[in-house]
Amino acid sequence: MTVNENLNENNSQQGSEVVRGVIARAKGEPVETVNIVVPAPGEHDVVVKIQACGVCHTDLAYRDGDIEDAFPFLLGHEAAGVVERVGEAVTHVEVGDFVVLNWRAVCGECRACKKGEPKYCFNTHNASARMTLAEGDADAGTELTPALGIGSFAEKTLVHEGQCTKVNPEADPAAAGLLGCGVMAGLGAAVNTGDVKRGESVAVFGCGGVGMAAIAGAVLAGASKVIAVDLDPDKLELAKQFGATHTIAAKDKSEDEVIEAVRELTDGFGTDVAIDAVGIPATTRQAFYSRDLAGRMVMVGVPNLTSRFDVPAIDFFGRGGSLKSSWYGDCLPERDFPMYVDLSLQGRFPLQDFVTERVGLDDVEEAFATMKAGKVLRSVVEL
């Protein structure tokens, strides 16, 4: 009998079970694969057996203490899997459903929801109990903070039923799970926040996973001209595969030269939509000034806590248009996840192409290093 089987036998009377999961125990320290206890589901909770989970920059930010200080964290949030157990009041999903997990389980009752803006829900649902470190760990019994309320670098996780979005089970879990964060953020930045329309021009600054999803989203929305801007020539070549019609190599150009290059590609006017998928002052400024008059700028790249974006007030006033941040691509998981999975299966959206490599649960720390080196769109942990 394995260690986990022994622990599970001890926990069986309480309805909990022990599985392996990846945690960040302290700020900046390498992640660990440990045994964790998944409690029995509460009334509206669901236990999901994880099949795949993407390795996202947000998980690295949790590990490095850049989001909050509630260590230890159970990392992982871009996940797909199968519903294994449900609480007695669960009606949203059933055992056996194939689901993508989301961190916007709309409450329906907060001020945003009541105003008809559930994409800004301020009170999203989470599981009623925390997972904990299992017996044998020096910190046994310590509650784990699940990344984005999910915690899916684990064989199983506990979430609220509203965090489960049922999608077509024919989808590859490694690809479908990416809608849970990065791909949806970029895709939604173009389609939802930027509201790209047929025939419009779009510039995307930064061609990582989120930026590439914004490019694919702009193409899907019918943009006639999609300009990819990045420092890395390899990423620019890949951007063409995702539908970019033009590329700008920013490595040897000043900020103003990049802006001028965008304008040259748009008859001197600038683009209808400019998307900053990096979130640093340089790319934010480039996106701001690369727009046509009354153009829309979208920031979906997450800035750090000290970044500032300063422009003369007359430029803000005089250029018109709109400046928007995009949270989760302004998505509604129940509406968007099934649709984009279906479009992928129909060959109309390249969701599968975002999976660069498939790794094991014990390879998360190595995947972080690969991600920081800019060598992947997404590493995906398969279980």
UniProtKB/TrEMBL annotation:
Recorded GO CC terms: cytosol
Cofactors, names only: Zn(2+)
Highest taxon in the source lineage: Bacteria
Pfam families linked to this entry: ADH_N (PF08240), ADH_zinc_N (PF00107)
Keyword hit for Oxidoreductase: yes
One MF term in the entry's GO annotations: S-(hydroxymethyl)glutathione dehydrogenase [NAD(P)+] activity
EC number, UniProt record: 1.1.1.306
Keyword annotations of the record: Metal-binding, NAD, Oxidoreductase, Zinc
Major enzyme class: oxidoreductase
PROSITE patterns on file: ADH_ZINC (PS00059)
Enoyl reductase (ER) domain span: 21-381
SUPFAM superfamilies: GroES-like, NAD(P)-binding Rossmann-fold domains
Keyword Transmembrane among record annotations: no
GO BP: formaldehyde catabolic process
NCBIfam families: mycoS_dep_FDH (TIGR03451)
Homology family: Belongs to the zinc-containing alcohol dehydrogenase family.
Name of the protein this chain belongs to: S-(Hydroxymethyl)mycothiol dehydrogenase
